[in-house]
Amino acid sequence: AQSVAQPEDQVNVAEGNPLTVKCTYSVSGNPYLFWYVQYPNRGLQFLLKYITGDNLVKGSYGFEAEFNKSQTSFHLKKPSALVSDSALYFCAGSPPMDSNYQLIWGAGTKLIIKP
Amino acid sequence: DSGVTQTPKHLITATGQRVTLRCSPRSGDLSVYWYQQSLDQGLQFLIQYYNGEERAKGNILERFSAQQFPDLHSELNLSSLELGDSALYFCASSVGNSIAATQYFGPGTRLTVL
Q1: How many Å lie between the alpha carbon of A113 and the closest alpha carbon of chain B?
Q2: pLDDT tens for chain B, residues 1 to 114
């Protein structure tokens, strides 16, 4: 079965330090991959996506992610964390020609940035 | 603000009742998606409509149904409600029906079943 995994339920980072939120996938072909963020009591907001091309994708709010085919990963990164980055982060993916037309979602990672 | 609107924001009802959740997509978007987010099951895809037609079906219960109207707004109907249906229900929209299209999410409807 195809899947997207976020191996960490929670990540704690000190403000100003670099942050990484991990995502691995088991999806056929060259997958489409997405990162979304959810702030408390809000809907999900799109951060970035990989469809094709450059493996390093830059997104909103200074976030970036690198598509690594050999490691089947799409980790989200930011060089310097802000307290306001504290939120729930979701990774999602899909095979490029998925007949079900639906994304496969990770379980989410809670990111806590401490001042 | 994503441009996707959902009403109502909160809904409290009793077991066995029926409710309707409403979603208006972003201007120009033809696809509407419905998701359920509960504490123990994360984000679950329910159903997608594209330009009025059902496009994809996920883990949607038979007690739930949805439709997309000619003006592209969508409604999710939940009937014979159970305590376990208490959750956040999100609507998202995208411009096309490609899986590569970015989905933009509404603020959600919080359903509480007592």
Answers
A1: 22
A2: 889 999 999 999 999 999 999 999 999 999 999 999 987 668 899 999 999 999 999 989 999 999 999 999 999 999 999 999 999 999 999 998 888 889 999 999 999 999
SS3 of A10-55: the string is: EEEEECCCCEEECCEEECCCCCEEEEEEECCCCCEEEEEEECCCCC
pLDDT at A101: 66
Report residue A99 as tokens. 């007949």
Amino acid identity, position A27: V
Among B45, B58, B106, select the one facing A43 at the smallest CB separation: B106
- DSSP symbol at B39: T
Chain B residues touching residue A98 (CB < 8 angstroms) = 99
Q: Are strands B42-50 and B53-57 parallel, antiparallel or unpaired?
A: antiparallel
Pairing of strands B64-68, B53-57: unpaired
Q: Residue window 41-70, chain B: list those with CB within 8 Å of chain A.
A: 42-43, 45, 48, 55-56, 58
A46·B48 Cβ contact <8 A = no
Facing residue for A43 by CB, picked from B97, B102, B105: B105
